[in-house]
Amino acid sequence: MPQPLNRDQMAWRAAQDIADGMVVNLGIGIPVLASDHLPAGRDVFFQSENGVIGVGPAAAPDGIEPDLVDAGSRKVTLRPGGSIIDSAWSFAMIRGGHIDVTILGAFEVAANGDLANWDARVPDKGPLVGGAMDLAVGAKATWVIMEHTTRDGRPRLLEACTLPLTAVRCVQRVYTDLAVIDVTADGFIARELLAGMSLEALRARTGAAITPAPGCRPLVAPALGHGG
Amino acid sequence: MPIDKRVATAADALRDVRDEATVFITGFGGAGFANVLLRALCEHGPKDLTLVVNSATHPASLTHELIAAGLVRKVIASSGRGRGAELSPFELLLRDGRIELECVPQGTFAERIRAGGAGIPAFFTPVGFGTDLARGKETRTIAGRDCVLEEAITGDLALVRADIADRYGNLAFRHAQMNFGPAMATAASLTVAEVREAHEAPIPPERVQVPGVFVDRVVAVGG
Q1: Is the pLDDT of residue B186 over 90?
Q2: Which of A19, A149, B16, B210 holds its CA 20 to 30 A away from the CA of A54?
Q3: Which of these, A136, A131, A137, A135, lies nearest to A71 by C-alpha position?
Q4: What does the pLDDT read at residue B128?
Q5: Does residue B189 have a pLDDT over 70?
Q6: Which phi and psi (to 5°) does residue B185 adopt?
Q7: In the UniProt record, does the keyword Nucleotidyltransferase occur (chain B) (predicted)?
Q8: What is the domain extent for residue A136?
Q9: Residue A131: which of B107, B113, B114 has the nearest Cβ?
Q10: Do A84 and B101 touch (CB under 8 A)?
Q11: A99 contacts in B (CB within 8 Å)?
């Protein structure tokens, strides 16, 4: 079994598919790392649901502006051309279809595109839905970055989600540590498969039918992050 | 009498807040928390409050002091989860059934408040359709999209953090401080703003982000 992608490599792979000029919302966790791995010269606006349009890199320790934060409470900077609006307007931007793509973390994705990413049913922990439902429904495209299986080896790509849904039929693409997968009317289609991994090995780790795309390519990423 | 919405202290600004009030609280991710007003409200001590606040558990917001003091009956929020594995005071109360939570998608939360201040009693939105958060709500298919009916939120008091106010109650924010401030200021019958500075001179009109029409009292708190 070849080495699966690490978090930075998964974020890198998703970042390669962000096109010039896109408006992109990144979820907390692995997705927000994608902003560090855009191909050079690609001009993109990152939207944060608290109303920061054009999130720049994290603020340097001596350049922190306490009131300039993103949706993950990180102290950030603003890129040239950026702007700040209020939450109601920010979610109008999200629901109104003005975001080209949102990249979200997830617990489970179903073959019909259903997404479960907000409630892992941890006993007694309070719920946290945040803006995930708004983003999954409102963005023009919803991509997911997640590990292909749970820590104890159970598949996260399933026939039907077992955890509470974030939104129905919303996911178009999934980037995992083993594959790049399109979610289509015909179910999961593997566009890229970890270099050196067999289709049988992928199928053994996937909880629904998965078909290789014609010309399915090897998934390779540069050495990045810890253990990369 | 010339309009002057500036009051001397946070306690003064909150003197007539009653038990069972519905209270909006601004703030997101460390920016725009009305913490001076929250501390004063805690000391004033009205009971059985309903809080409308994005997060019931953000560590930088003094919302948790109101909750820990037992003054809160219900919270309407998009997050009620504390950080880490240990249960936050809010989560302990929730587990024991001593506080109620209405969990709302954040955009629906913002829009329900906006609608409340804009005279729209309810609206249909596709967000939440088919999820646990839409359970029991009216649904309708509009232009081919499955939607959920969401009701507006109005309230008795909004606690808003801004950067600058003038005597007319006009407000200007600093960076992402704005978040829920403009919507919340419109949806409450009494809006109180805490600001870094409250000036005699008016804010230049094109710099005003919340017109004083929506603001009743302002308190300068520095910071």
Answers
A1: yes
A2: B210
A3: A131
A4: 98
A5: yes
A6: -60, -30
A7: no
A8: 7-219
A9: B107
A10: no
A11: none
